[in-house]
Amino acid sequence: MNFNIITIFPEMFTALASGITGRAQKKDLISVKCWDLREFSDSKHRRVDERPYGGGPGMVMTYAPLKKAITAVKQANSTPARVIHLSPQGKSVQQEMLQNLVTDNEVKNLIFLSGRYEGIDERLIAEEVDEEWSIGDYIISGGELAAMVVIDAITRLLPGALGDPESSQQDSFSSAGLLDYPHYTRPEDINNLAVPEILLSGDHASIARWRLKQSLGRTWLRRPDLLAQKNLTNEEERILEEFIAEIN
Ligand code: 9WO
């Protein structure tokens, strides 16, 4: 997957050199290319913003540099690119849509527009943006961090990006659509808080069932909205009922 980011803060994306996204870049599973929007400005002072029509506070990112940058990125890629604007007005990013993007294998080049100031001239969005994505209902200072969140989430889904021990199938929201079960490691005694006995038993089938019960139970308690979207098997229903019966 090729990630292109159009931004006035390209240096922020050095964060992706760490961890799984860093390793994926070294393995050539992904590329991360930042395009400094100011380099596409025709003005002497490399301006990319102007005051809003209609007045009000702040500045708006102008059409021309963004249009030139998008054209340059598309020319640099041999196959079609999808232009994605990170914005609170977008559709909310979900694990399933990212999984479909990777599985369908249709788009290999993504262009993320990371807005700053008060936002982007609406005509650029109308003419050039294919999709608007939101990572959640909060305002941050610009689209860069949102782009990095999405890049990280997509990268984890690419075959070979995770080492065996990290296998993504067990994550929260993996194919199962359930929250994760609780984890324990050494030491066995911490302030008299016990490790659940079953985890010390060596009985792998029972451990797997206990973990599923915890996942179902925590999702029921904390994210009933997620559970409502799922069709539980009869066995899962039984295990969840057990969890509920065991509360107090
Ligand atoms: C500011 C604002 C003020 C009052 C009412 C609504 C408002 N929306 C915004 C706004 O969206 N500001 C943006 C800040 C302008 C472009 C960059 N910014 C941004 C992107 N903030 N948060 C995001 C973002 C992107 C993706 N997912 C979540 C948040």
Could you list some keywords that capture this structure?
248 residues; alpha/beta; Alpha/beta knot; Trp Operon Repressor, Chain A; 2 domains; two-stranded antiparallel ribbon; binds ligand 9WO
Please characterize this protein's 3D structure.
- This protein has helices at 19-26, 63-76, 95-104, 122-128, 143-155, 204-222, 224-228, 234-246; strands at 2-7, 31-36, 49-50, 60-61, 81-92, 109-113, 131-134.
- The chain is α/β, with parallel strands linked by helices and 248 residues long.
- The chain folds into two domains: 2-157, Alpha/beta knot (3-Layer(aba) Sandwich); 176-247, tRNA(m1g37)methyltransferase, domain 2 (Trp Operon Repressor, Chain A), CATH 1.10.1270.20.
- Strand 5 (81-92), helix 3 and strand 6 form a beta-alpha-beta unit.
- Helix 6 packs across helix 8.
- The termini are far apart.
- Ligand 9WO binds at residues 86-88, 115-116, 118-119, 134-136, 139-140, 142-143, 146.
- Ligand 9WO is lined by residues 86-88, 115-116, 118-119, 134-136, 139-140, 142-143, 146.
